[in-house]
Write a structure and sequence with these properties.
By secondary structure, this protein is α+β, with helices and mostly antiparallel strands. The chain contains 5 helices and 6 strands; from the N terminus they run αβαααβββββα. Helix 3 packs across helix 5. The longest helix has 27 residues.
């Protein structure tokens, strides 16, 4: 496999996506959960995926020893995922706070009608679909440019990501890329 150039690598791990996004300017790197008055159920969405991430090695070990038990656990996990997706839909309430974004492990960009000063710190609340991953993150605006009259392109770099949060973002990006490839293949077959 040939090595990717830095620009190719950046594009490879970046996706266009639609997510539920809320953000609030902050003065210092406060914890995002202190800024947003989120319900315990929103935190549950993130915790469910962190637990899933933490238990992957256990699942692989069980699968090697007992395929029947592994199949059963996979079904239970799917049921929990479906409950999480239903819970996420209750947060969305239709299409509220939906934003078209460009997302990577390191940050994201979006277009909005108001400028934000470069260097501004933000508390970010993201709900990634369809897996219903709820994340509370901190970020810093690294660019803000007027893309068209009254429309500003905002670039935000994530700050102080935990390894688990980074892994959840990476998994979401890879799953979205795979889904986009499947859709493109189906479109080409027609």
């Amino acid at each position: 496999m040939s090595k990717l150039t830095p620009d190719e690598r950046r594009d490879f791990f970046r996706i266009a996506d639609t997510i539920a996004l809320e953000f609030t300017p902050i003065d210092s790197m406060e914890h995002a959960n202190e800024v947003f008055k989120t319900s315990p159920l929103f935190h549950l969405l993130g915790e469910l995926h962190l637990l899933d991430f933490d238990s992957q090695h256990l699942y692989r070990s069980i699968n090697e020893r007992d395929r029947t038990l592994a199949a059963y656990l996979k079904i239970i996990n799917k049921r929990i995922e479906l409950l999480g997706q239903a819970l996420a839909q209750s947060f969305l309430g239709g299409k509220g706070h939906q934003h078209e974004v460009t997302l990577s492990e390191g940050g994201m960009g979006w277009i909005q009608s108001e400028a934000i000063t470069c260097g501004q710190l933000l508390a970010l609340k993201l709900l990634l679909q369809p897996q219903a991953i709820g994340l509370l993150l901190q970020g810093e605006v690294v660019y803000c440019s007027e893309s068209s009259p009254g429309q500003f392109t905002i670039g935000c770099e994530f700050k102080d990501l935990s390894e688990a949060q980074r892994q959840l973002l990476a998994r979401h990006i890879l799953q979205k890329q795979a889904s986009d490839r499947r859709v493109e293949l189906e479109r080409n077959k027609q």
